[in-house]
Design brief:
- A hairpin with a 2-residue loop joins strand 2 and strand 3.
- The radius of gyration is 41 Å and the shape is rod-shaped.
- The longest helix has 57 residues.
- The protein has a 6-stranded mixed beta sheet with strand order 2-3-1-4-5-6, sandwiched between helices.
- It is an alpha+beta fold and 413 residues long.
- The protein contains 13 helices and 6 strands.
- The chain binds guanosine-5'-triphosphate.
- The site of guanosine-5'-triphosphate has 15 residues, from strand 1, helix 10 and helix 11.
- InterPro entries: Diguanylate_Cyclase (IPR050469), GGDEF_dom (IPR000160), Nucleotide_cyclase (IPR029787), Rev_trsase/Diguanyl_cyclase (IPR043128).
- It is an enzyme of class 2 (transferase).
- Its EC number is 2.7.7.65.
Length: 413
């Protein structure tokens, strides 16, 4: 992505006002796609304007070619007009490549230019030379308005100049000064038209490159924002969700829940972690935290969402679980840590690292889990008080008759 941006930045570094902005190869198709509709529209407009021009100027034939008026009118209305209308229809409905449409449209304009040149060659009237100007005007309009590729534009200009020179050479006047005029007019009209084509095309490229660069920047910013919010929700040590990420994930889960949905919240705390840290060292404590986190996350799958709420305290939220399932589930969590068999000679609960687990099972009133967390916290406190390495479950849906909580396990050392 970064490379892409510098490539685009480099594309804008052009020297001088005729410096060509080059679009990076991988962006060329995007540029072509983005300007396709515009270029097709410009072709249509050029034919429409051309048709208006070729037909409206029929009135000038009586002045320009009085000896060939009927031929001029026939060429305009029997050849150019039907061809132009057919071309408009084709451009509107054909689904072929743009370059083909550009070539065909150029061919149409060249046909019109050639027919006017035929009148120059056949007419004895000196006024017929007015068509030279007319043809160059057509060429200018084509070159500037049709957004044609530069190479095609140069070829087109060359053909028009040659057709004009040929018409003058074949015409009755055959004056070399007229050829000179042809060249002069070509320089005055064609030259600036080519420059205009170049500058407009360059401007389109610059516009595209700037927009692409802007979009790239926006994409990068969005990616960085996503990454930052992922990092802000993650505990770097264990790579579990941190308190913030855990609650955010839970909230998005709750959006799918109705008040009747059942959820279990398990609060989990490592037993005698302070002595563990003090005797085995902080680095060993970190390693233990990582392994416990991994074991809990694996045991919690696939239903549970695990997080590290801080220090040596973890939480797991399990949606849609029954009272029977929650017992086995919580036991699975507890045993998963005990099975790591990480020696802990300073714990009175066991000779290995163990956890105490407090679980609250209940419905979620109006998407609010705070009450469940409070009850789970109280259950955890009870599990600690009862000797640690055990699970205490508060079933808020069907409380046992004589006690609001049940201690389900006292893990064997
Ligand atoms: N290595 C390490 N230790 C941590 C981290 N966060 C908290 N602790 C330690 O965890 C210990 C928590 O101690 P206590 O809250 O007294 O809990 P405990 O010793 O486990 O006692 P009980 O929970 O009652 O069994 C403290 O020594 C903290 O320094 C951590 O990121 N890395």
């Amino acid at each position: 992505m970064q490379e892409n941006t510098t490539e685009l930045d480099r594309a804008l570094e052009t020297e001088g006002w005729l410096g060509r902005i080059t679009i990076p190869p991988e962006q060329r198709n995007a540029f072509a796609a983005r300007t396709l509709a515009l270029r097709r529209q410009l072709l249509l407009i050029s034919v429409l304007v051309g048709l208006g021009f070729y037909t409206a100027f029929a009135a000038g034939d009586w002045f320009a070619v009085p000896d060939r008026v009927w031929l001029a009118l026939t060429l305009r209305f029997a050849v150019i007009l039907p061809c132009g209308l057919a071309l408009l229809y084709w451009l509107r409905h054909a689904r072929c490549r743009l370059i083909v449409q550009q070539y065909v449209t150029c061919a149409f304009h060249l046909l019109a230019v050639t027919l006017l040149a035929v009148l120059i060659a056949l007419s004895d009237s000196v006024n017929a030379l007015g068509f030279v100007f007319a043809n160059y005007a057509v060429l200018m309009a084509m070159v500037i308005s049709m957004a044609l590729p530069w190479r095609l534009v140069v070829i087109l200009a060359g053909i028009v100049v040659a057709i004009q020179a040929l018409a003058i050479a074949l015409g009755p006047l055959q004056l070399s000064v007229l050829q000179l005029h042809n060249i002069m007019i070509a320089i005055v009209i064609v030259g600036p038209s080519l420059c205009a084509n170049w500058l407009i095309e360059n401007e389109r490229r610059r516009h595209f490159v700037l927009i692409e660069r802007e979009e790239n920047r926006k994409r990068q910013l969005a990616e960085q924002r996503d990454m930052l919010s992922r990092l802000a929700a993650l505990d770097p040590l264990t790579e579990l969700a941190n308190r913030r990420g855990f609650h955010a994930g839970l909230e998005s889960d709750l959006e799918r829940y109705s008040p009747d949905n059942v959820m279990a919240i398990a609060m989990i705390d490592i037993d005698y972690f302070k002595p563990y840290n003090d005797h085995y060292g902080h680095a060993a404590g970190d390693r233990a935290l990582r392994r416990v986190a991994q074991a809990l996350a694996e045991a919690a799958r696939p239903k549970g969402r695990a997080g590290r709420l801080g220090g040596e305290e973890f939480a797991i939220a399990v949606p849609g679980i029954t009272a029977e399932e929650v017992v086995l589930y919580a036991e699975r969590l507890r045993i998963s840590v005990q099975r790591l068999a990480m020696a802990h000679h300073y714990s009175t609960a066991a000779s290995v690292v163990t956890v105490s687990i407090g679980v609250a099972l209940g419905r979620i009133p109006a998407g609010n889990t705070a009450a469940l967390f409070e009850v789970a916290d109280a259950a955890l406190y009870q599990a600690k008080a009862a000797g640690r390495n055990r699970v205490v479950i508060h079933d808020l849906i069907q409380p046992v008759a004589d006690a609001s909580w049940r201690c389900f396990s006292a893990g064997a050392p």
